[in-house]
Amino acid sequence: MALYSTDAGGALLAHALHSQVCMHADFGGVVPELASRDHIRRLVPLLRQVLANSACSVTDLDAIAYTQGPGLAGALLVGAAFAEALATALGVPTVPVHHLEGHLLSPLLSSKPPRFPFVALLVSGGHSQLMRVTGVGEYELLGETLDDAAGEAFDKTAKLLGLGYPGGPALAALADTGRPGQVKLPRPMLQTPDLDFSFSGLKTAVLVKVRELATISDQQRADIARGFQDAIVEVLVSKSLRAVKVCGLQQLVVAGGVGANRELRRQLDAHALAARIAVFYPELEFCTDNGAMIALAGALRLQAGGAGKLPGAFAVRPRWPLTGA
Ligand code: KG4
Ligand code: ZN
């Protein structure tokens, strides 16, 4: 949850995050019912916390932004109901926000933000897309994954290697101890002329490698993790830079949980420098899901001339393409 002020060019006044990772870890993944019940418990304390941290009162709120979708219906409903109820009580408008728009605009929270237009690589647990971003609300889909998202591929491969939830960071840490070039995996769709991705075959290739080995040593497991990460990073870097060139632009924004991956950042920085492309990342804390990016997206929508919505009736959109937002 976050408070964002549009005064003086815009500033994040306070933000707080309650992670449910520990709660879900015992189950090896997100349990939707537990997630939404825990949302109910956390919202009021989080609101109190951000108000206290910013020395604001609830009556200082001019509008309330919340995630309308896409995502788990139960969790979305809790957030939407809370925001709409609070806005009704305060008599202020609401701004239902697309979750991916929050990720897409999150680098604007940093001290050195990109300028419109730019290309964005959105790599989260549920999405892998390349977007041309011309302005707030002006998004053109350039390419996307045909099957698994990059984060999903990290999570599933981590599971195959016996790592816990969440898999992405655990697999990345293991890959650090792996030897480069020891395990060679395919680079799916690297050479295709489009800007699409496909990651499900990579996970299957890892499964085949694991099955080939009767027993697997720690070093072999790390080498496989390294081979997987190198393959996925090479494809993401190549297609992202190609997208920037195709659009005739000079800026690339990387957003979503996989954007926290250090090897992806290293390789992107190196290749972008050679191609004279500037790469922008959100601060690490704003890479994975957070309230600050939703507050920012809501504020920018209002600033761009949106009046917000009358508080009260609402609907959530568990499935919602960004280009239709
Ligand atoms: O954007 P996000 O926090 O939530 C969604 O909207 O999905 O992304 C979560 C995804 C998960 O799949 C997680 O494993 C992955 O981002 N992730 C990473 C890293 N940190 C998070 N994947 C690779 N390397 C990381 N360091
Ligand atoms: Zn997300």
From TrEMBL:
UniProt cofactor note: Binds 1 Fe(2+) ion per subunit.
Cofactor(s) annotated in UniProt: Fe(2+)
Keyword Metal-binding: yes
InterPro entries referenced in this protein's UniProt entry, alphabetically: ATPase_NBD (IPR043129), Gcp-like_dom (IPR000905), KAE1/TsaD (IPR017861), TsaD (IPR022450)
Entry's EC annotation: 2.3.1.234
Alphabetized UniProt keyword annotations: Acyltransferase, Cytoplasm, Iron, Metal-binding, Transferase, tRNA processing
Keyword set includes Secreted: no
Binding site for substrate: L122, V123, S124, G125, G126, D155, G168, N261
Pfam families linked: TsaD
Gene Ontology CC annotation, any one: cytoplasm
Its job: Required for the formation of a threonylcarbamoyl group on adenosine at position 37 (t(6)A37) in tRNAs that read codons beginning with adenine. Is involved in the transfer of the threonylcarbamoyl moiety of threonylcarbamoyl-AMP (TC-AMP) to the N6 group of A37, together with TsaE and TsaB. TsaD likely plays a direct catalytic role in this reaction.
Similarity remark: Belongs to the KAE1 / TsaD family.
Residue sites binding Fe cation per the record: H99, H103, D289
Domain of life, per lineage: Bacteria
Protein name: tRNA N6-adenosine threonylcarbamoyltransferase
Stored NCBIfam families: gcp_kae1, T6A_TsaD_YgjD
HAMAP family: TsaD
Gene that encodes it: tsaD
Catalytic activity: L-threonylcarbamoyladenylate + adenosine(37) in tRNA = N(6)-L-threonylcarbamoyladenosine(37) in tRNA + AMP + H(+)
GO biological process: tRNA threonylcarbamoyladenosine modification
GO molecular function, one term: iron ion binding
SUPFAM superfamilies, per the entry: Actin-like ATPase domain
